[in-house]
Structure formats: C-alpha cells, structure tokens
Amino acid sequence: MNLRKNIGWWIVGLFFIVPYLNLFRLDIQGGHYYWMTKRLSFDQPLPLLLTILLLVFLVIGLSTFRARLFCSTLCPHNTVSKALRALEKRRLDKPVAVVLTPLIAFTLISYFDEPRLALHGILYGQSPMALAFFVVLCLFLGSLLWKLRSKFCQNVCPYGFLQHLFTPDNPTRVAKIGVATLLLLLAVAMTVAALSTSASEVSFKQVSRVETGSTITYVYNLGLTNNNATTAEHFTIKFAPDAPQPIGLDVHDAIEVGPGATKVVTFALRTARLVTVQFEVCTEHEGTCKPFNVTLSN
C-alpha cells in the first residue's frame, strides 16, 4: 500500500516539475516543443507524435494488467482527492484546495506555453488568451477539488468509459504480452526518434529578384536556428564549385549561432542564363547536412 501511495505522489510531483524543467512541453507560440530538455520544431513532429501515442496507449493499456490500475495508483486527480478527503476532519481540505487550484491551472498552461511569458501575461493582462484559459481552468479545477473530487471519477471521467470499451473483462496472457510489447516498441521508437532528430533548423527563402541588363540578381534569406539550449552550433555553407557563388557571403567561415538562437544570413546569386545552384548547410557538432537546390533563370 505504501508503494502505491508513493507512486501516486511521484506522479503528482512529476506533473508539477516536467514543464518547468523542459522535460516535455509544447511552446505553441514559439513553434517548438521540448523533449528531455531538447528543443525541437513542430516541423520535426515524429518524437512528439510517438510520445503522445505512448502516453495514450500506456493509460489505456494499463487496465489490461489490472482493472483500474491507473485510477487507483497513477491518476494525479485521485491521489490529490484522497489527500483532501483525509484533511476533511481537520477542516483543511478547502483551504488546501484553494491553494492548489491556481497552481495546477498554471502548471497545465505551462505545458503549452513558456512559463515565464505565461505568468507575465496573466499577472499583467498582456495575454488575454492565457488569462482566459487560466480563469476557466481555475473554475473547472476549483469545482473538482472543492466539491466533486471522487464523484468526477465515478460519473464524468472519460477514462472509465474508454476502459470499458477497449479492455476485455478477463484479458488473456497473450493480450497482456501484446500490450507490453506494443508499449515497449513505442518507447524505443520514441527515444530513437527524439535522439536522432536534429536540434538545428535551416530555412531558405527568396527575398527579391532584380534585373540588371542581361543579368538577374536573386536575394535570399537563410535562417539558421540552434535549438540546443546549452551549446553553440557552427554552420558551414558549401556551394558546388561549378555553380554561381554567393554574393555577400563568405563560405569559408563558419557561422556561429548561440544556444536557442536564430541567425538570418542574407546573400545574393547572379546569373545571365538558366542554371541550377546546389548547396548544403552543415552543422559542426551534430555532423548533419541539409541540401538545397535552387533554379535561377534569366
């Protein structure tokens, strides 16, 4: 019993610390998400999708091993509700619920926004959306912790309905092995995808096209983003030797981009004929290269 209680409180503790340590959270405004402190772009969605799939199948699949295992041991709401019921005799349940409500509401918001920006937006009213979500969450969570508590689990919680739909009454040993194998494969795939996904982003965009006599000059912006939170990255740009060389860009020098920063490099390509320019942008620490092909026409 003590082990079950401890696991429940460990889950509650993880709920509170995960977004603030960037172990896993979304940054919707910034267009990124964090996986074990590694910042990745939404353009690299595989680790995020696999993580969500693993969490969904884990919650649903746990009931294959033991009925209501998630509800009785792992559900944070159930753990907190039991603690509040234990405080009823001392009449401390409602004061504690009042304190917990805004803390839980803000933590939930922090899973989808940068915590410091969200806090600043809520306190000073500079983010109406964050403030609105905070108020709605406080009202909803307040009703859960103040009065509903276990009644929510018994009558409203959708997990019980899903468990009834997807979990057989008497799961066989083969079913348990199948669920365990699926969860293990998802965990391995998630880890491999996250570790192998580059923490660097490269964007390429044409800015302008200027005609000068018989030649045309194309101007481009090359965006270099280093999603690593602790280490600077050096980008090297390599053009094919037989292609037009960039104007305003020294390809012999590596471009340093600080941790979590983005640097935009502007250069031009000039041509008097139809030509395809090939170049690649390589990273020093990760050792990855991203190729580009651009067709210039007169």
Describe the structure.
The structure is a single chain. The chain is of the alpha+beta class and 298 residues long. The protein has 2 domains: 2-196, no CATH class; 200-296, Immunoglobulins (Immunoglobulin-like). Helix content is 47%, strand content 25%. It is built from 10 helices and 10 strands. The chain has helices at 2-17, 46-65, 69-74, 76-86, 93-110, 115-124, 128-148, 150-155, 158-166, 173-196; strands spanning 24-27, 32-35, 38-41, 200-212, 215-226, 233-239, 255-257, 262-271, 275-283, 289-296. The protein has a 4-stranded antiparallel β-sheet, with no helix packed on it. A 3-stranded antiparallel β-sheet has the order 1-2-3, with no helix packed on it. Strands 4-5-8 form a 3-stranded antiparallel β-sheet, with no helix packed on it. β2 and β3 (38-41) form a beta hairpin. α1 crosses α4 and α2 (46-65) packs antiparallel against α10 (173-196). The longest helix is centred in the middle third of the chain and has 24 residues, at 173-196. It is elongated, with a radius of gyration of 26 Å.
